[in-house]
Amino acid sequence: xxxxxxxxxxxxxxxxxxxxxxxxxxxxxxxxxxxxxxxxxxxxxxxxxxxxxxxxxxxxxxxxxxxxxxxxxxxxxxxxxxxxxxxxxxxxxxxxxxxxxxxxxxxxxxxxxxxxxxxxxxxxxxxxxxxxxxxxxxxxxxxxxxxxxxxxxxxxxxxxxxxxxxxxxxxxxxxxxxxxxxxxxxxxxxxxxxxxxxxxxxxxxxxxxxxxxxxxxxxxxxxxxxxxxxxxxxxxxxxxxxxxxxxxxxxxxxxxxxxxxxxxxxxxxxxxxxxxxxxxxxxxxxxxxxxxxxxxxxxxxxxxxxxxxxxxxxxxxxxxxxxxxxxxxxxxxxxxxxxxxxxxxxxxxxxxxxxxxxxxxxxxxxxxxxxxxxxxxxxxxxxxxxxx
Amino acid sequence: xxxxxxxxxxxxxxxxxxxxxxxxxxxxxxxxxxxxxxxxxxxxxxxxxxxxxxxxxxxxxxxxxxxxxxxxxxxxxxxxxxxxxxxxxxxxxxxxxxxxxxxxxxxxxxxxxxxxxxxxxxxxxxxxxxxxxxxxxxxxxxxxxxxxxxxxxxxxxxxxxxxxxxxxxxxxxxxxxxxxxxxxxxxxxxxxxxxxxxxxxxxxxxxxxxxxxxxxxxxxxxxxxxxxxxxxxxxxxxxxxxxxxxxxxxxxxxxxxxxxxxxxxxxxxxxxxxxxxxxxxxxxxxxxxxxxxxxxxxxxxxxxxxxxxxxxxxxxxxxxxxxxxxxxxxxxxxxxxxxxxxxxxxxxxxxxxxxxxxxxxxxxxxxxxxxxxxxxxxxxxxxxxxxxxxxxxxxxx
Lengths: 388, 397
Description:
The structure holds two protein chains of two kinds.
Chain A: H1 4-11, H2 15-42, H3 44-47, E1 53-58, E2 66-67, H4 70-75, E3 80-88, E4 91-93, E5 96-97, E6 102-105, H5 107-113, E7 117-119, H6 121-129, E8 133-137, H7 138-144, E9 151-156, E10 167-178, H8 181-184, E11 190-193, H9 194-200, E12 207-208, E13 210-215, H10 221-231, E14 239-243, H11 244-255, H12 258-287, H13 289-297, H14 302-338, H15 350-377, H16 380-385
Parallel strand pairs in A: 6-11, 8-10
Antiparallel strand pairs in A: 1-13, 1-14, 2-12, 3-6, 3-13, 4-5, 4-9, 7-10, 8-11, 9-10
Helix pairs in contact in A: 1-14, 2-12, 2-14, 12-15, 14-15
Chain B: H1 2-17, H2 22-54, E1 61-66, H3 79-86, E2 101-112, E3 119-127, H4 131-134, E4 139-143, E5 152-156, H5 157-162, E6 171-174, E7 177-186, E8 196-199, H6 200-206, E9 214-218, H7 224-236, E10 242-246, H8 247-254, H9 256-291, H10 293-301, H11 306-336, E11 340-345, E12 350-355, H12 360-387, H13 390-396
Parallel strand pairs in B: 3-8, 5-7
Antiparallel strand pairs in B: 1-9, 1-10, 2-3, 2-9, 4-7, 5-8, 6-7, 11-12
Helix pairs in contact in B: 1-11, 2-9, 2-11, 2-12, 9-12, 10-13, 11-12
């Protein structure tokens, strides 16, 4: 630690150069922080998954409906604790298709199935008892300025009412939210009461989109899933049951390999930083050879001088990296505001900080080692004589 | 002329000098190549996606959907409505007098990508016999057409390339039934190449559908007046609640969400990388000038003006930037162009396959970005070089 002032002095020997290098490292780590946040947001579905929840969908495609009568049959499968059902409403709000998802659910069963959603008891009670009731996620309500007690006019692109009209109206009776940022993205939806929805729709009465199944023992997930699917085998509506996490991962994979794309971009970014900083370091050490020789003359060991150079590289990357990550963190609220809640909330996770530290350390070694070894081999006489 | 001559001479010296400063010069080239490479590749993805949807459909054809529906998946056209639509006078007929309409159903089937196991929503389209006459861009690549009334499918070229088990002769199992792949088709690189096609009636019975989702038809009169007449006829018929859209208009809407989702992060990443590369270029040009302090001062002392010095430094920066931009563009072209991928189109909730398209426009855009970075990175160092007090510079050297 006592060498810190010396490292600092070495680093800022040429202020402009170091500041520019620091800024480019800052930008690289800022980009790293942001892209990692986007990737984590994409995968948040899987992270927020509960190992004790299974999803039962139609076997051949998740958009095919299942009979509502399956609920009681799934409930009887050993190991199953609770079952909830949900259906896709296909919302069109203010002329925008799929501005947010609307699910037709059995209120009590659905909210019990997702204890990570927080809702005031009075709101919950109102949702359970109001047939035309609806509840909305806090972020969504904020986005559109909805107030509890107002009417929610939402059109459906799929479900006509018995009179043939596609325009539906619900009473907003409550707001729900979640504490955990990875779960909060999943609250961007409106829930409506299936009792009213199923009765008022023209087609598809008595069916639902999918079932959510709570089991007692997460270890038994695969076995219970197979048991459920066996119930309906060879029926007109065969099912596919899988743990929630697998479903979320599968769905994310439909979009494609976001992770691989992000990794490739970041490789390009860090490769550029490597060349840039490596060159600057090499140049900085080259200029200082006589000084380093003097340090050796004063009694610094070969190892000591080598460590000084390595330390300088590390200080450069830690300063730039920390500033970049801090910049990423401070940009998050603005970004989350700019996406208008259309994207899951972005945040810099703890693991991103760890990864950033690892990358900074690795880059410092790769950048610092060549000049450090050169200094290690430096012979005082040659260096002072100007034979570089 | 003397001024131009001075610029030329200094620039020549500078450029000849580059090999001796290879390390720092390389920083500019690599930094800018990185920016341009990433920018061009990401935009090539968005470009390829837009191209696929933009090349789908002809203005002479209309999509008939339930009023209020923005996509086929959420639309519904009952059987009797489809018959009424086919009889409307605004719709073209073939030489035998049969209307050129195809009422179609679209369902999603789950297929894994090649070499993977997770299911993807692949669109499965049931078409009527006239579909091939209406969409004359569809050509058989391999095998034969499916027979009517038989569980046989034709597979689009891109679907066959992306998803597992879609080779001619293979059997695929969807919903209570086995289907045989009897052929593959191409349709000019459009969206339909990501689809699986079968006979509409067979598909409806297998997927237990009673109605269609859309009707595609050729307009008798492709002008705006012809379309307006068809819309009028539909509006007058109380049995119909149908929207008629020209195909290109319909497919352009299907691109809206996803192309924004690629464009916005693509440009954001490129802007950040460009800022980083500008710092790198500044650094490089400053050190290039520092190492030539004496030389520049000497030139000034023997009568060269300040402006030629500025211009020459700028030219050097721009030349390096241009090399970087060209390298980045070339890498993007070699690495990405023609590479295909498929993703979930949020508008249709189904997989769409497309190729990266590194177009001339994108490469040009990449070079413009490179020059802007070069300009930003060269200007301040160039000004410093020109302002250097001659005596002081000569002394420090």
